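fyi for ur records
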Amino acid sequence: MSRAELSELEKRMLALEKLHFKYAGAKEQEIRARFDVSPTHYYQQLNVLIDTDGALAYDPMLVTRLRRLRSTRRRVDASPPGGRPPPVEST
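which gave:
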């Protein structure tokens, strides 16, 4: 997806992803407080955002890390129960 300019909301979303939360549920509370949306909706928007060229240009290290985490989660979710996840394909 190619969109060079990020909105203020998108920049705020990426800023939140840089933070580290100490307690379970703290990030979800912060999502509700900052954005007035459910965590599910936030993560849906974030997944679209990290696929944009604008997000990658804005913060390449963060977006690359978020993409890698998403890819890892998808591999684990797709693995058979009790089985090993499929091997990582090298690019």
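DSSP finds five helices and no strands in the chain. thats all i got for now
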